[in-house]
Write a structure and sequence with these properties.
The protein is of the alpha+beta class. The chain has one domain (about 5-80). It is built from three helices and six strands, in the order ββββββααα. The strands form two sheets. The protein has a four-stranded mixed beta sheet with strand order 1-6-5-4, with no helix packed on it. A two-stranded antiparallel sheet has the order 2-3. A hairpin with a 6-residue loop joins strand 5 and strand 6. The radius of gyration is 19 Å and the shape is elongated. It starts with a strand and ends in an 8-residue tail after the last helix. The model is unreliable at about 95-100 (pLDDT under 50).
């Protein structure tokens, strides 16, 4: 079977993978090895490498996944601190540094 790469962390667990040994199942059943910002995924039956998943979780992809109903992404958003406005947004709203 071909190896897959999941560039977006959200949703890879719900995918189905299959291996040349005949195993087929949810990605949550795959064995994983973590290497910094990626994880290699292996068949639980024969240990063949079936893919890679990015462990980088950005705000944009988390918001998209939450909007689609992903419960893990929704929970992650509730744990994220509020982000300060960017300088451009501050300038547009008249809150630029030194103004008061």
């Amino acid at each position: 079977m071909s190896k897959r790469i999941w560039r977006d962390f959200w949703g890879w667990q719900e995918s189905i993978s299959e291996c040349c040994c005949g195993w087929k199942g949810q990605n949550t059943e795959l064995r994983s090895e973590y290497f910094g910002e990626v994880a290699e995924l292996y068949c639980p039956k024969c240990e063949a490498r079936l893919g890679l998943v990015s462990l980088v979780v950005g705000l944009d992809s988390t918001v998209r996944a939450a909007a689609l109903g992903n419960e893990d992404a929704i929970q992650q958003l509730t744990r994220m601190p509020l982000l300060p406005k960017s300088e451009d947004a501050n300038r547009e709203s008249g809150l630029e540094s030194g103004q008061g």
